[in-house]
Specification:
The complex is a heterodimer of chains A (242) and B (216).
Chain A lengths: L3 E10 L2 E11 L4 E5 L6 H8 L7 E6 L2 E2 L7 H7 E4 L11 H13 L3 H14 L15 H13 L5 E5 L7 H16 L3 E5 L3 H7 L2 E6 L2 E6 L1 H6 L4 H10 L1
Parallel strand pairs in A: 3-8, 3-9, 6-7, 7-8
Antiparallel strand pairs in A: 1-2, 1-4, 4-5, 9-10
Helix pairs in contact in A: 3-4, 3-5, 4-5, 5-6
Chain B lengths: L5 H36 L4 H15 L3 H16 L5 H27 L2 H9 L4 H31 L11 H12 L2 H32 L2
Classes of the chains: A alpha/beta (242), B mainly alpha (216).
Keywords (chain B): Cell membrane, Membrane, Transmembrane, Transmembrane helix, Transport
GO molecular function (chain B): transmembrane transporter activity
Subcellular location (chain B): Cell inner membrane; Cell membrane
Chain lengths: 242, 216
Amino acid sequence: MALVDIRNVTKSYGSTQVLKGVSLDIKEGEIVTIIGKSGSGKSTLLRCINALERIDGGEITVEGQTVRTDMPNLRDFRQRVGIVFQAFNLFPHMTVERNITLAPVLNKRIAKAEGRALALDVLERVGLADKIDAYPAQLSGGQQQRVAIARCLAMRPHLMLFDEVTSALDPELVGEVLKVMEDMARQGMTMVLVTHEMGFARNAASKIVFMHQGRVWEEGPPADLFANPRTPELQSFIASVR
Amino acid sequence: MRSFSLPDFLSLLSALQWTAVLVVIALGFGAPLALALALMRTSASRALRWTATAFLQLVQGVPLLGLLMFFYFGMPVFLGIEMPPLVAVGIAMTVYTASFLGEIWRGGIEAVKHEQWEAAACLGLSTWHQFRYVIAPQAFRMALPPTVGFLVQLIKGTSLASIVGFVELARAGQLVSAATFQPLLVYSIVAAIYFAACLPLTLWAHSLEVRLNGAR
């Protein structure tokens, strides 16, 4: 069974329909990359998976459970499905350690020493163990984004969502974030990304989903999709990002 | 008839204690109410927002003097409740403080980016924990300078309590002035005492503003 099952999902903002019947399967261990022009609905779809947006029609299930913004165990669900944002959204008044341990301490009541060990563990995975006592403002954009990823990892999620996580970064800082994500992919984390990094999509993704006008226009393994785009829309998109 | 002397000055200073008592009452009861109002104003529930807004419109549209008059003279007439001056003045100052601080704090809460709530929610924090650990500390930093600034307004505002006969600094000034027939001298001294009480706060508010704006 798929880890995430998206069936015929529709979603409108006012009179604008952003998702017009989207269906998609995401299996455990898959790296699914959603590409498409801005306004194609890809970020909205990602946010729907995490119940950050209410859907109007269709159904999304994660690990067999129907996702709703008013689901009774929403807080547990959110800990199983981590999300990393374009703007990092670290808490500026907390150290890196506190950013990472806040949720585990409050939700799982772990002890202080255990929290520090947890923070060190996840920071090592993103290569920032030496920044454990720093404040976000003392870090570069790339480092802040890696801390945001570490904060997510500390919840031991079963699935991670990445919403254009390199779009706000200076070009020379993109690589360090992508490298962390490649490491996670190798370790078997199920990941869904919305990205403009075609290099990453090509090399690390197990499946590419091309969205256009609120629909899944084409999907398939990257080698196939990039070599043989079937629709003129994907052809012109690939040409435009090259 | 006597002229202004040291005992008069001491009686002014001792009346300053009652000014301080009013400030403490206003803050002690007004601040929790202000927090509740700020939370109501920023809540998702329309009914809560509407209730808080109606209360604020009502209170902020009436001068503090009007509030004092209402609770001291109006309550016995309209509701048949007689109140000692301290209670009436205390309630009026509390209501006044709650409405103004509530708006200042609402501004602080709304100044924290919406994404901070979202990020905290995505970590599985409860709404209360989101506010308590993520939003409130950031809102507090932003609201601290205007809060201290309001404190200065509050100290000066307590002088209106003299109108209902409550003996704080301004009323003590009236009494001393009536006994000595030296109003210019006495009121100048009263003004100087208010100034001396407020100046450190004004300076503190200013330094906070510079410091917090300079920081992250």
